[in-house]
Amino acid sequence: MRKLRRFSERPREPVAVTVDPLPTADALRFLAEGEVVVCEPIAWGSNYSFAVVLRRDDEQRLAVYKPRRGEVPLWDFPDGTLYRREYAAFLVSQALGWDFIPPTVIRGGPYGIGTVQLYIDADPRADPSKLRQTNEGELMRMFLFDVFANNADRKSTHCLRDRQGKLWGIDHGLTFNVVTKLRTVIWDFCGEPIPRPVLDEMSAFLSDRARMDALNGQLAELLDPAEVAAFYARFERLLKLGRFPHLDPYRNVPRGWW
Known about the structure:
This protein has 6 helices and 7 strands; from the N terminus they run H-E-E-E-H-E-E-H-E-E-H-H-H. By secondary structure, it is an alpha+beta fold. It has a 5-stranded antiparallel beta sheet with strand order 1-2-3-5-4. The chain has a two-stranded antiparallel ribbon with strand order 6-7. The chain is globular, with a radius of gyration of 18 Å.
C-alpha cells in the first residue's frame, strides 16, 4: 500500500471533468462505481484528503476522497470514525429531505476505505456574510442540522454556494458526539422562532415510521448506540423548544473559524 503524502510528487496535465449537476441517485451511483483515475492530495486541513477524478463510461467528475487511514487521532472522537460520521451526516440530511450535503458514499480507494463526496463547483463571487440574504431557508436548516447533529466544526469555508445559487455544507466528520460540542459560524438566527414550515418538516420526519426505521438501520452500522440516542434527544428537544438556540461566544466558535 502506498505511503500517504500531502503534496503531489509531480505536476499533472489538466484533466477534463464534467461539473453539471447530477440527480442525487445518479451521483451516488457515479461515486460508488467510478474508477479513480487521478488522486491528488489537498494541501490544507488537519486530516489527509484527496481530490480525485472518477471516470464512469465516457464521463469524468471531481470528488473529494477522505480515507480512514488519513484521520488524525483526536482525544474526543473514537479513532477511525470520522469518515463514518461524514456519511451519517449525509444520510440524516437525506432522510429529512434537507438536500444540502453533497452526495456521499463509503467505498474503497487508493488508500483504503473512506468517504467519497461529489465536488461542489463553488461560485467564487459568493459572499459568506450575505448568505442569509441569498439562501435564508437553506442556511437556517443547516444551522438546525448542526445543532442536532452536534457539529463541532462549521466554518465559513464549509458553506458553499454553487454557480446555480444553491447552498451546500461540507466537512461533517466532527459530528454526532454524545458530549455537546457545537461550534459554528452560523449565528444569524439565534433566539428567533423556527418557522412553522421547518418545524412541520421536522415533525413529519419523526412521525414517518418508514423513514425512521430506514435511517435507524443505517445509523446503527455507523455510530455508537449512545450517539444515535443523543442525536434523537437533541432533535426532539429542538423541536419542542421551537426556537433557534442562543450560542455562547466562547464555547460555540470553531477554531480557525474562517
